[in-house]
Structure formats: C-alpha cells, structure tokens
C-alpha cells in the first residue's frame, strides 16, 4: 500500500510519515520547504529524507506526473499555511496554498482513482461558535483568513465526494502539540513559545488575562485517528480533540513546574497580539481591534464523540504527560540549535 503525505517535512507531516512507514506503508512525501524542515524527517530508527521530494502542491503538472508514476492508495494533505497572522497578512498566498493546492490533489486523486483522501482541517473554523462543545454538523462560518481557507477547502472536499463518489475525510485538528513542534518560527504555537521562553529564562509575553481556554490534542493521538479513517466511505468531517481545554495560566504553570522555572509572565493588551505584523494595522482599513480581541480570548472545546463512535478512537495522552514529552524534545533541540 502506498501513501502520499504532503507537507511531509512539517511538524505533523513528518511524524505521520514516520507512523505510516512503521506500519508497513510505502510512503512518498512532498514539501516545498517554506515551513518544513528536514530535521522533522530524521528519527531514531530511520531517516525519511530520501522519501520526500521538493514539490509545491500548487504545481498541477508536477503533481499529476507524480500521481501517474506512483499510483497512490491514500493521500494525506497536511501541506498548508497555518499561522493565522501569516495568512491574514498574505491572503492571496494563503488561499493559493490552502485551497487551490488542495483542488489540484483532489483532481489528481479523482483521475487516478485514489481510494481515500484525508484533508487537514482545523477547529479554528469554529471561531464564531457560541455553543460548546462544538460539533461537526452545525456552526457559524469563520471570519479570519486562515479558518476561511480551511472552511472553503472542506466545501471542495464535500463537492468532490458528492459529485464523483470519492472517499474524503476532513480532520478538524484542535491545537496540536508534541515533539518537533516549531518553537523557532516568528509566531510559534503557544506551547512551543512558552517552552522556548522558559528554556532561555526569558519573560514570556502573553495577551489578555491568561484565562482564555483552548482545546489541545497530542500528536500521537492525532496520528492514531488519521490512520483509522482510511476505510470510511463517502465524506466525513471529524473533530480531532481531547474534549478538554486548558487556560494559558494553567499550561504555563504546568510547564514552569515541569521545567523547574519560576518566571512570572507578562500579559499584554489583546490589540498588540499581531504587532510583529505591522501591515495588518496599516492601510485605509486596518484590522479591527475587536477581531483581535475575539481571537485572543476565543474559547475552544470540541466534541470528540463522533470520532469515538465512528472509529473506535479515544485520546490516550494526558496534557501533563504530553507536555513533559514536548519539553524534553524541544529542550534537546534548542540545546543543539545553540551549539
């Protein structure tokens, strides 16, 4: 059995590729390395760099040639631009990658008879939801660029499934954390950011009052579900969630304890949230401050009962255990980075 993983050199794509390889799959990966890193393809038991080609999912001709040559059984589309401020500051690029790139994969999968396509979606599409826990079947559409691209991508997936009878699953990831999380980029994920600042004994800058709560899922639990959905027929959208949430203060306290640090965090007004992206505050129509406030203070909690009923899945890794594993991994990575 042969699998294609796009975004294979990213945090999620690299570990998914490894898990598929360990399970006996013939794995082919592609990545344009705009966010990916070849270190994410190096593991204790193998180096998957030779399995990964440099390729952009927006290059239809190259993608079509790859599909014709390899004859994939399943496609995991993990490629995409995920950082919210990156998408907001460059919406054309975000839409091009997150929507048009997916359409190329859908069309090639249709033409070549791929048995199943799995699309990486996000619980950010629930950003305007007010009923919790959020369920897959009913929610108001999102506002910001990133979740809007994923919302549109899901509509294309549904269209291909219903029009052509294809098997397609959209996995709506909660906030994913685990080893290899990118803590060095300009706007790292929260877990990576707080570990990095604690490692360097710096005062972390958080926003609002720290009581905002988000839903998290450990990478191994996500991969477990991603590998279970391949037998599903037709279209499905699935929350990949722990069905638990934690506040900024709770997670920072837990990380501080695990790392043996005692550094009080600094809390800033929510309107400063994307100050590293000044273009968003410029122009005739700058970003509305109430939108920033909503994003900073957004509450997320996703219902995972559909995944449990349909696929016999349940998350196994507790927040404390998962955070401990990430701290060990990222501190080792930062040590090597500094040497």
Strand order of the largest sheet: 3-2-1-4-5-6-10
Low-pLDDT windows of residues: none
For the report, how would you describe the main beta sheet? 7 strands, parallel
The fourth-level CATH homologous superfamily of the domain at 2-178 and 216-243 and 300-317 is NAD(P)-binding Rossmann-like Domain
How many DSSP H or I helices? 11
The portion of residues forming beta strands comes to: 15-25%
Overall CATH architecture of the domain at 2-178 and 216-243 and 300-317:
3-Layer(aba) Sandwich
Could you state the order of secondary-structure elements as H and E? EHEEHEHHEHEEHEEHEEHEHHH
Assembly form of the protein: single chain
Secondary structure class reads alpha/beta
Which fold name is given in CATH as the topology of the domain at 2-178 and 216-243 and 300-317? Rossmann fold
Number of strands: 12
Radius of gyration: 19 Å
- Report the average pLDDT across residues: 96
Q: What's the CATH class label of the domain at 2-178 and 216-243 and 300-317?
A: Alpha Beta
- Can you give the helix content as a percent range? 40-55%
Net shape: globular
Walk me through what this model shows.
This protein has 339 residues and is an alpha/beta fold. The protein has a domain at 2-178 and 216-243 and 300-317: 3-Layer(aba) Sandwich (Rossmann fold). It is built from eleven helices and twelve strands. It has a seven-stranded parallel β-sheet, sandwiched between helices. Strands 7-9-11 form a three-stranded mixed β-sheet. It is globular, with a radius of gyration of 19 Å. The N and C termini lie far apart (41 Å).
